[in-house]
Design a protein that fits this description.
about 550 residues; alpha/beta; three-stranded parallel β-sheet; globular
Length: about 550
């Protein structure tokens, strides 16, 4: 019936009540979130027509577009996992699966293990196991080959012994927009061109240099291929993506020493391509344009990463002028740009129609409150501002959140615990920064941001498959407590305001978010106290002399 069937696990295809950051709910351990609560917050089943999904993750839509370009529209379907049996038959050649965090080794998931311990049994893992059971049941007794791709493939290189039980033919690593059609054909024919595709995967040594490792179960771009697709070979999506996502650029270039993304070359999607993809989403009923980039303020940047105000204004204006688009926000961006360019941020905010009922959410790698760690691991993070010359690292962060909150932007910060060379003093500087930001105000309004701590887990512990809470020492637990204390404050303040749906759904979702935030904080507080954390010290650290910060001068004195 269909040559190629594409599917993703449900953690990537549900809306999670449209609540900010609730998409990370599946990262929680299965034992921590009861099934009924998880399924309620996950939201209703995504819409489909006879099993063919209306919306799909952006990566799946790119693969679909590449296959359709090569083999025609009737050759490919993107289906809901519960309908696989209707579309996988004796003529199906390849089933393609996209995944983000299949084994539960992603940074957020591992950070929950640091708190709860136990086996690798997060909801992401449960959802993955359920999907693979359905996939293999649908292909049982048939010729269809199984390919798994997406950003989560690296996890199988760590837990190599998990591969066989899923009956996957190949795990595919890297960007494949331009070669995926040939890849599917060769896999279907069981005839891999070893010049075009490398049997193995790319990893990194202790100096963060690329290393190629041979492995018959993995495929990557071969030696006869360029390392990445050319811009002109990346296809436009032909069906709507989840949450209206469209890609505006690839790569970053900032050069943080812990980030693989920075090694990818910068490429900017043509405006006409961006508009075409937004129109596809609008036609599918999506009025938001979610602009994916690894660093939006690096879009067509100038020297030393100076933001290109003209290019950013043109991008956002073009997006917002597409008929049917009501809202838009970027995925990722640095905090230093709002700090150094408040007038530009005000202009961009007006273009995006930011306001009290339209907050512009953006994910930001804050990483640390320590100036020493910031200079060591991410010296270019503040460019074109410079730590020392344009203020301390914490000064720049505070000013950035000040400008963001004033213009109705909300950063979702991540911070790291366990960085190389980290000291207890570094962690307490992070606590001080969190507390100062949490008690800061602009125009009478509290700073709007979330902060999620991520723990760096040694590979040896991951490979053991049994994790314990000793991954966090007393200072790391103190950081976690400060972070979740602020998150509980945000949940109580914004849980009901940001909930969607009818009155009952708003009440239920807002109530669960607010209650969950408080419950999580109480859990960590008890855990931290038991480990010897001075809770009162955490609560007041960095703000001993003030309860409210409204200016950079006051912040510096706190």
């Amino acid at each position: 019936m269909t040559r190629f069937v594409l599917v993703s696990d449900t953690t990537l295809s549900y809306e999670y009540r449209h609540f900010p950051l609730l998409d990370f709910l599946p990262c929680a351990p299965g034992k921590a979130i009861p099934g009924p609560i998880y399924r309620f917050l996950k939201g209703p089943e995504p819409p489909n027509v006879n099993g063919i999904v209306k919306y799909a993750p952006y990566a799946i839509r790119k693969i679909e577009a590449s296959l359709v370009r090569a083999f025609g529209r009737d050759s490919v379907v993107v289906v809901d996992e519960d309908y696989l049996g209707q579309y996988v038959d004796d003529k199906t050649e390849v089933i393609g699966v996209s995944t983000m965090d299949p084994l539960g080794l992603g940074p957020t998931t591992m950070s929950y293990y640091a708190l709860f311990g136990g086996d690798l049994d997060a909801w992401v893992r449960r959802e993955w196991d359920s999907l693979m059971e359905k996939v293999n049941k649908a292909r049982e007794g048939k010729k269809a080959k199984l390919i798994v791709g997406g950003p989560g493939v690296w996890e199988f290189t760590i837990l190599r012994d998990e591969i066989d039980k899923y009956k996957v033919d190949y795990y595919v690593q890297g960007e494949t927009d331009d070669v995926v059609a040939e890849l599917f054909r060769q896999v279907a024919e069981d005839n891999i061109d070893k010049q075009m595709f490398f049997n193995g995967y790319m990893s990194y040594d202790e100096n963060f240099h690329k290393v190629l490792k041979k492995d018959e179960k993995f495929l990557a771009r071969g030696i006869t291929q360029s390392a990445y697709p050319r811009l002109e070979d990346i296809p436009e999506i032909i069906n709507p993506s989840m949450k209206g996502m469209v890609e505006v650029m690839r790569g970053c270039g900032v050069g943080c020493d812990f980030c693989e993304v920075t090694l990818r070359p910068l490429r900017y999607m043509p405006l006409n391509m961006i508009v075409d993809e937004i129109k596809i989403n609008v036609a599918g009923g999506v009025d938001n344009a979610w602009l994916h980039s690894d660093e939006i303020f690096g879009y067509k940047h100038g020297h030393f990463f100076e933001p290109n105000e003209e290019a950013l204004s043109e991008l956002f204006s073009t997006v917002m002028s597409v008929p049917g688009v009501k809202t838009s926000n970027p995925t990722h961006g640095r905090i230093s740009i709002p700090a150094g360019y408040p007038e530009m941020m005000e202009k961009l905010s007006k273009i995006l129609k930011a306001g009290p009922r339209n907050w512009i959410g953006i994910q930001t790698g804050l990483e640390t409150g320590s100036e020493e760690l910031a200079k060591k691991h991410m010296p270019n993070k503040t460019l074109p501002l410079r730590i020392g010359v344009d203020g301390s690292w914490q000064d720049i962060v505070w000013q950035g959140v000040f400008v963001e909150t004033r213009n109705y932007w909300r950063s979702a910060f991540t911070i790291q615990v366990g960085q190389e060379g980290e000291t207890p003093e570094d962690l307490w500087e992070t606590i001080a920064l969190i507390n100062k930001l949490s008690n800061s105000y602009v125009d009478g309004r509290p700073f709007e941001f979330t902060v999620t701590p991520l723990v760096n887990v040694p590979l040896g512990r991951i490979k053991s498959k049994k994790l314990n809470t000793s991954m966090l020492d007393v200072n790391g637990l103190a950081v976690y407590y400060a972070s979740y204390r602020h998150l509980a404050k945000m949940a109580a303040r914004d849980g009901f305001r940001d909930a969607h749906g009818n009155a009952f759904l708003k009440l239920a979702t807002g109530g669960l978010i607010s209650f969950g935030g408080r419950l999580m904080m109480d859990f960590i507080e008890k855990k931290a106290q038991k480990a010897g954390v001075d809770i009162d010290k955490v609560k007041r650290y960095g703000i001993e002399s003030t309860d409210e910060i409204t200016s950079l001068a006051q912040f510096a004195r706190a």
